[in-house]
Amino acid sequence: MARKGTNSFVVVANRLPVDRVTDPTGQSSWRRSPGGLVTALAPVMRAYEGAWVGWTGGADDAPEPFNTEGMDLVPVPLTADEIQDFYEGFCNATLWPLYHDVIVPPVYHRQWWDVYRRVNNRFARATAGVADEGAVVFVQDYQLQLVPRILRQLRPDLKIGFFLHIPFPPAELFAQLPWRRQILSGLLGADLVGFQRRGAVGNLVALCTRYADAVAADDNIEVEDGRKVRASAFPIAIEVAEIARLAGDPAVITRSETIRTELGSPEHLLLGLDRLDYTKGIGHRLKAWGELLAEGEVNPDDAVLVQVATPSRERVEAYQTLRDEIELQVGRINGEYGRIGAPAVHYLHASYDRPELVALLRAADVMVVTPLRDGMNLVAKEYVAARIDLRGALVLSEFAGAADELDAAFLVNPHDIDGLKQTLIQAMQIPPDEAAERMRRMRNHVVTHDVARWAREFLDSLRAA
Ligand code: ADQ
């Protein structure tokens, strides 16, 4: 058995919940990164002397463990080569496309797999070194699927939970993976495996029966020595109260009015807000918008689309190609239908702080969320949380996890461009009382299911598992 530590609750994630910031004098310090996960887990961290094991985001950056805001942070170093082979390679060019319906072809490299194993080993050892006897360990996401198994071998005394933030594909796709047995065995090292949607549970059960010599009945998978693994859906949520507070902040309201004025006070403001990722369906959205303009269904004098695309994974080739394609599409639409001072698509390749994001959400008459596949999609829930005024319409892809809960949205199949066009028009023309009724139904759900509840439900199930 490995060396033990003193933390009775340990979160293991690819990234630490802090970013390094350097001031003008060259002094560096840590700032908590924005994100619902750390906010939801912070109270648990404080109550149980929690530790968070993760990477700092830099190459060869291995500071000693340190404490911030009641959490012990345990940095796991990655070399520049490991960042390429593990993070950009196996995580984001193999697993990410494979788990998102093969929208772009996954790349399989044995060298990347070797590094994925090595890095997962390092995370598991770092965790084993800080976890107290019988501690609860909560492992996050596709970067660390081997950690539950390695950790169980090192420390059979631990309670291990795993949550996958992205979709878990059906056997027809997953079976492509040359290392499918190892990944399944890695996941089955956990006591509880959590997914965003119910369907993923069925996918895991089917795959384990076929490739992992496991016996499964419903959500219970029986593995070696009769040990039981539970699989279940825990749809992730957002910090609703914080977003609603910002939405009511006079400075944010003023900013949101300014945004509308600066856009020429359009009758219809449509908003897309996504990481620049091929899963998000930005191209399909632009195609539909371009056709509506071409056919005169939409008048660029009274309707604008704002597309914010957050820079993402810029060293991965598929993301460079995507950026070129999207920017070409935006340029064409603006060249055809824009006028001086009045583009038909306002395209912004940038990150914003929370108040600015909420001001944008408040300014949008129609929020357009059209991923081709998405684990959950927090932006859809954030839009609902920000509409304390019960105005606005949400167009939402049925391929986002959020569609299970937000069934009062205008649900669309983004591949059906004609259907998408019709839905955009419907959403733009929604009568105010229908908009309020739909928004009220969605808010009832979002407000009562916040991220703190998500964390509580997962951890309660893990303790009971
Ligand atoms: P992501 O794919 O990153 O998350 P999403 O769920 O939409 O996608 O979350 C994006 C977050 O970034 C949101 O909180 C949003 O407000 C924020 N954001 C977007 N654009 C921004 C910008 N320009 N500046 C600053 N912030 C911006 C993965 C999965 C999802 C799953 C989440 C959580 O792919 O399916 O919902 O994890 O589990």
Compact overview of the structure:
With 465 residues, the chain is α/β, with parallel strands linked by helices. It is built from 16 helices and 18 strands.
Describe the structure in your own words.
The chain has 16 helices and 18 strands. The chain has 2 domains: 7-236 and 452-464, Glycogen Phosphorylase B (Rossmann fold, 3-Layer(aba) Sandwich); 240-448, Glycogen Phosphorylase B (Rossmann fold). Strand 13, helix 10 (282-294) and strand 14 form a beta-alpha-beta unit. The protein is of the alpha/beta class and 465 residues long. Helix content is 44%, strand content 21%. The chain binds adenosine-5'-diphosphate-glucose (ADQ). The site of adenosine-5'-diphosphate-glucose has 18 residues, from strand 13, strand 14 and helix 13.
Number of domains: 2
In CATH's first tier, which class of the largest domain applies? Alpha Beta
Helix/strand-derived category reads alpha/beta
Q: Which molecules other than protein and nucleic acid are bound? A: adenosine-5'-diphosphate-glucose
| SS field, number of helical segments | 16
Q: Any guess at the CATH architecture of the largest domain? A: 3-Layer(aba) Sandwich
Beta-strand percentage?
15-25%
Largest beta sheet: what is the strand line-up? Answer: 5-6-4-1-7-8-9-12-11-10
| CATH superfamily placement of the largest domain | Glycogen Phosphorylase B
Which parts are unreliable, with pLDDT below 50 for 5 consecutive residues or more?
Answer: none
| Nearest-integer average pLDDT | 95
Number of beta-strand segments = 18
Rg from Cα: 23 Å
Distance between the termini: 23 Å
CATH topology name of the largest domain, in short, is Rossmann fold
Question: What characteristic shape results from the CA principal axes?
Answer: globular
Helix amount = 40-55%
Largest sheet: 10 strands, mixed
